[in-house]
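Quick review question:
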């Protein structure tokens, strides 16, 4: 059951005030669950013809939880022989980076990390079919580390946000600023390089693997200078995402205006910064080709999924508006299809859907229960991610009462 029209109007009204929205949503769902008596039940609904299984099945869920992280990166390597994971030891309060052999079931806990959050993990990503990269906190600095199953191969002086699709390097952002202004995506720990940085030295950096150097390519001071209103604060950048060919990337510049959130979507291409769109609501997006994004945003007073052409600036509502009835989610694209989730409804079910962009039809694949005790920064969005061949979907879910990564596959 999704939210009704009245509930959606209230959600839209408070959408630019994240704290108020979270407070009202938590109170409303708590009241509904108390009246319906469904809280803390462990359950899921799966469409016939699909299967679901945990990545990790050999350890005690009372002690360990596991998850991958965000929806913009796939946990599989190119050959789909291994899958990446984070394993959290609840007793030791320690997060381990894990590489799992899909065929044999063997698991390699290769390292621990102190630079992570529950939404994006340590930004764990494959660099090659054998090597992977993730963030860590060592000697008072946020860094990125390159590993394979045998151990550490290299370390980089800046933390990772997103890897270039051709593995030329990676983009980096200021996680200390995110910790201050959006704790869901920041890291614990103090790094003096970022905590007291001037605006002209803050923004987005690119680390070049071949040259082994880092260069600032987006300047936060320049972004702030384009906002002419008064009573503005809490500036930050986040959600960098390369186009499939790696020629450009998009990101969001967010700030508070009179206490209400404003989001500005930008494109970086050919060493130039291009403004695309500003709204109270721009949330999640994925590339569907090298020029267009599938994006949830508000335009002309309507929140919906839109197709955003980053080259022309043209923004059109997605053809099948029924898709938007379910509300905002995390979209991931592969071979003409988008998998997306929803936030928990009043009964605390998160819905997983697959949308065919050729026919504009979609199917509901799964509904997974999320206990209300996991909320705010500890919440667990499904964050669906395609396998490279587009036949399986990775999600993080709480439907068994503990955070786990699952693989959902359509039977052939």
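Suggested answer, residue by residue:
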């Amino acid at each position: 059951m999704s939210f009704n029209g009245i509930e959606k109007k209230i959600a839209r009204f408070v959408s630019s005030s994240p704290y108020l929205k979270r407070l009202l949503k938590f109170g409303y769902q708590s009241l509904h669950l108390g009246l319906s008596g469904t809280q803390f039940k462990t359950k899921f609904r799966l469409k016939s013809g699909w299967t679901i299984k945990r990545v990790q099945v050999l350890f005690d869920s009372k002690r360990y939880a596991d998850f991958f992280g965000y929806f913009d990166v796939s946990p599989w390597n190119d050959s789909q022989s291994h899958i990446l994971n984070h394993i959290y030891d609840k007793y030791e309060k320690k997060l381990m980076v894990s590489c799992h052999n899909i065929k044999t079931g063997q698991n390699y806990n290769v390292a621990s990390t102190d630079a992570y959050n529950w939404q994006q993990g340590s930004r764990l990503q494959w660099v090659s079919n054998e090597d992977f990269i993730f963030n860590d906190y060592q000697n008072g600095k946020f860094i990125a580390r390159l590993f394979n199953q045998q151990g550490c191969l290299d370390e980089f002086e800046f933390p990772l946000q997103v890897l270039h699709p051709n593995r030329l390097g990676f983009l980096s952002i200021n996680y200390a600023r995110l910790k201050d202004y959006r704790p869901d995506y920041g890291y614990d720990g103090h790094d003096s390089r970022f905590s007291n940085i001037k605006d002209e030295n803050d923004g987005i950096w690119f680390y070049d693997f071949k040259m082994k150097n880092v260069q600032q390519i987006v300047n936060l001071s320049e972004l702030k200078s384009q906002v002419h209103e008064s009573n503005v604060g809490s500036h930050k950048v986040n959600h960098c995402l390369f186009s499939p060919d790696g020629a450009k990337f998009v990101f969001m510049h967010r700030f508070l205006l009179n206490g209400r959130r404003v989001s500005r979507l930008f494109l970086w291409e050919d060493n130039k910064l291009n403004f695309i769109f500003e709204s109270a609501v721009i949330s999640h997006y994925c590339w569907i080709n090298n020029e267009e994004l599938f994006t949830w945003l508000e335009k002309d007073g309507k929140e919906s999924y839109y197709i955003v052409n980053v080259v022309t600036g043209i923004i059109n509502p997605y053809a099948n508006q029924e898709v938007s009835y379910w509300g905002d989610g995390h979209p991931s694209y592969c071979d003409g299809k988008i998998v997306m989730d929803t936030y928990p409804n009043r009964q605390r079910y998160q819905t997983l859907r697959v949308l065919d962009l050729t026919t504009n039809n979609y199917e509901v694949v799964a509904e997974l229960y999320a206990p209300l005790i996991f909320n705010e920064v500890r919440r667990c969005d499904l964050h669906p991610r395609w396998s490279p061949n587009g036949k399986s979907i990775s999600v993080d879910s709480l439907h068994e009462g503990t955070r786990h990564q699952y693989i959902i596959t359509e039977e052939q």
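Why it works: The chain has a mean pLDDT of 91. The first helix runs from residue 5 to 14.
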